[in-house]
Amino acid sequence: EVQVVESGGGSVQAGGSLRLSCEISGYTRRRYCMGWFRRAQGKGREEVAYISMDGSTRYPDFVEGRFTIDRDDAKNILYLQMNNLKPEDTAMYYCAGDPCPPPSRMWEYNYVGKGTQVTVSS
Predict the structure, then answer these.
(1) Which residue from 2, 32, 36, 50 has the highest number of Cβ atoms inside 10 Å of its Cβ?
(2) Which residues are within 8 A (CB) of 99 and not within 5 positions of it... i.e. 6 or more apart?
(3) Distances (CA, A) of 58 to 15, 16, 120
(4) What CA–CA distance (Å, rounded) separates 59 from 25?
(5) How far apart are the first and last CA of the chain?
(6) Cα separation of 19 and 10, whole Å?
(7) Phi and psi torsions of 28, nearest 5°
(8) How do residues 93-111 score in pLDDT, each as one tens digit?
(9) Chain-centre distance for alpha carbon 36
(10) Residues 102, 20: Cα–Cα separation, whole Å
(11) Lowest-pLDDT range of 17-21, 75-79, 82-86
(12) For residues 92 and 38, is the Cβ–Cβ distance under 8 A?
């Protein structure tokens, strides 16, 4: 059974940083695509970072160079470094993974965690 567990969320002030981690267990295939998406209260889901099996990355415009996604395939851990956080970044952050090529929408990936809350105060 594959398990996806996020950690690293918390409360920070605007301008602060957080590093989210996502540990995937029970998944023996390394060649998979992964990413992070978020959902703020009362809003829709939106992708924040994507990394393919070859390490290429993709970010939406609103990230503006503040977030960095990275992966450690030896440990099956995905990271999201978030710097210069803004109040509008407040949301539940989810980790997702799927064999490449993945579905077009990250929240439709086969493996999605339960999320970790990020709260940014002004």
Answers:
(1) 36
(2) 29, 31, 32, 33, 110
(3) 22, 22, 23
(4) 25
(5) 41
(6) 10
(7) -90, -15
(8) 999 999 889 999 999 999 9
(9) 2
(10) 22
(11) 75-79
(12) yes
